[in-house]
User: Fold Beta sliding clamp from Periweissella cryptocerci.
Amino acid sequence: MKFTVNRTAFIKELNDVSRAIAARTTIPVLTGLKLVADANGLTLTGSDSDISIETTLSIADETASLNIEDTGAIVLPARFFSEIVKQLPDQTMTVEITSGFQTTITSGSALFTINGLDANTYPHLPEIESTNSVSLSADTLRQIISQTVIAVSNQESRPILTGVHFSFNGNEFAAVATDSHRLSQRRVTLDAANVNKADLIIPGKSLNELAKMLENVETVEMQVTENQVLFSLGKTLFYSRLLEGNYPDTTRLIPTESDIQVTFNATELLAAINRASLLSHESRNNVVKLEISETGSKITGNSPDVGQVEEALNVKNYDGNALEISFNPDYMKDALRSFGNIDIEVSFTTSLRPFILTPVENKESFIQLITPVRTF
Assistant:
């Protein structure tokens, strides 16, 4: 194998693929980057067995200036190879297998020699043969991920909760995540109405990495099989394993009625909670208190060792009884950030029951739920 390529174009693809490569793994070959050069171009593959990413630099891509002299394949140690490529002195570089699996990288006056591995020992990527596919706007998918992945659990004791539950039914798409203390649910109506019914649970880690790759993509094609999902982002393929098991029925967790409804601007409320949490973070409990009544609303943060903060809130609309409720400010900040600068309605029942946050407009499309903290 021997090829010459524009280093900037190569690094862009290398960065994407490197997201899937683990620094440590029980399968040593997976710490490597697989390179395959053929008549059509250069394919880069990275995997940690949970996530696999494959992308191709086409011979027809003028910006890549790719010239393949000899076809072939090799697996190179990803960390060393990546550091070498990023520090080469020239705009172009040449990679060549010289003997066995020994590989040279040359650029300008620099020449590196590193030891590779047999590409045949690299695990094959899953074969996705599925008629169950759906097209999504990349912007919509990125927004859905950012709004739901905040609520996935970090506790491996309940693995099913470390993922986001995606469900498709006709042209209805719902995504929900919960760690049992909070919940985030987003619903979207798709343009295409021919989507088969499907339920899948995608690890939050996979979705976080996927979201970072959606910036310059317009449309994402999603294909589902029994234990894998494939996201096609143009010339890049992103595979993720699915979590096995049944996701809890979260519909029964969301209150259908409320006694108190308060409207805030999400950005203003977020800023106030940020200030209140400056002191609450110093407290062992990390709790802030919200007080709501006809005469006004205020947020309070308290740390016995440091002091107390109290701030009046700007309420845009209020309907219901007086209430005092305490909650984890970090959960509330994550929820508020996901709305952006819009007006939201916060609906309460009692000081010990979960409360929900929804956009003032189109309330059914997006729900954030937070469980309060008992302080007595």
